[in-house]
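User: Hey, my collaborator sent me this sequence without any context and asked if I could get a structure. I don't really work with proteins. Can you help?
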Amino acid sequence: MGGDFLRMGCVGIVLLTACESPQRPDLEHNEQLYRFTTYRTKVPPDRAVFVPPVADGRNAMPASAGAVPTVYMPENRWERPAAEMVDGVLREELRRAQLFTGLRDAASPADLVLQVTLVAFHAGASEHPHGRSTFAESGIRCVVLGPADAKGERATLLDRTFGEKADSEVGMRPTNAMVLQGMTMRSVVQKALLALDQSNVARSSAPAPAATRKQD
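Assistant: No problem. I've predicted the 3D structure and written it out in structure-token form, which is a compact way to encode the shape of the chain:
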């Protein structure tokens, strides 16, 4: 049993090299980890939005990702907490995409409210007979609340969850797990921007969308 414990410890050390932190391990401030999208709306909006800080709604990580020896990357390898990084990335993406007339510091009755919850954000590496592989998963839930009515209540206009997973090929030098994390988050953000744009929630003249809860 002692030999098995030592073997797993050595595997963990080897696998963590595939999760080494690059310089400035922060999605918002390192373009090698996250390249901002080029998404821009083509139809001008006429509503502003208030975005509260991204909430961390992730579940506890499983002990293993499968039948092969697996190590999850420790969160402290990132420069900041995951929800804080995603918050910064999302705000910058919203500004660049121009989906709303502006991002408010507080919500007025006429503004929309975009509530974002981080539902998945993890990466790691697995050991195989002929090498190693890395993996990552990202996911966010976006809920858009409409303008307040006379009672101050806001209707739910959109409720969508967006997710993405990625796995590297098996090899001696697989893609860095942090790079995969950035790739999956970029895909998630692209999906969210497209959905927000196509929903027309930021255009008062467009038909009000029927609120649906959907996972992409």
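In plain terms: The longest strand covers residues 131-148. You can pass these tokens on to your collaborator as they are.
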